[in-house]
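4.2 Preliminary Data

To establish feasibility before requesting continued support, the project team ran the inverse folding procedure on a target of 180 residues. The structure was first converted into the token representation described in Section 3, and no sequence information of any kind was made available to the design step. The complete token record follows.
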């Protein structure tokens, strides 16, 4: 199998994986099952589905880091693009809407662990998602040349650390909302 066929196959596989994951999440919402009991017990189905997909996401992004370290840049590019697109989809379908449950009326509201951790998770996650999207747009030649970031290897490493920190804060958010 030649290289263009491998690349097309990888892109098709990535598209199916992202579309399937987002269809699963959308299906849960369209069926009105968001608040149904989840897989893990304490949380609702939509939160558990998001948790599972986020574990795959940070694992996949970490694997992409290894691909780059091994010099397989084409595979790295497809891999990271896939996970960033999935993350943007999860933000749009699940996380953005869930922020309506965590409105802040005054600064003292942030002292509540549920609210403070959720907003910290959202703030770091937003910065990380923007950095990840910027990198993907640049590495795929979509971002105009004038907007290219010169130190993008450092930005890639910082974004990966941001994804991990955001994931850990996501686990903390799940804990404070559904377990504690």
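Position-by-position output of the design step:
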């Amino acid at each position: 199998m030649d290289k263009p066929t491998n690349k097309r196959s990888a892109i098709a596989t990535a598209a199916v994986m992202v579309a399937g994951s987002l269809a699963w999440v959308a299906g849960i919402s369209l069926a009105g099952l968001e608040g149904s009991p989840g897989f893990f017990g304490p949380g609702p189905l939509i939160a558990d589905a998001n948790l599972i997909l986020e574990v795959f996401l940070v694992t996949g992004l970490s694997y992409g880091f290894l691909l780059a370290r091994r010099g397989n840049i084409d595979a790295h590019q497809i891999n990271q693009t896939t996970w960033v697109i999935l993350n943007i989809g999860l933000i749009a379908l699940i996380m953005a809407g869930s922020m309506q449950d965590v409105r802040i009326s005054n600064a003292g509201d942030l002292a509540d662990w549920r609210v403070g951790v959720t907003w910290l998770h959202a703030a770091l996650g937003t910065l990380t998602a923007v950095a990840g999207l910027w990198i993907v747009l640049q590495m795929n030649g979509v971002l105009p040349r004038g907007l290219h970031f010169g130190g993008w290897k450092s930005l890639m490493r910082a974004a990966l650390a941001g994804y991990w920190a955001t994931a850990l804060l996501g686990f903390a958010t799940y804990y404070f909302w559904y377990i504690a």
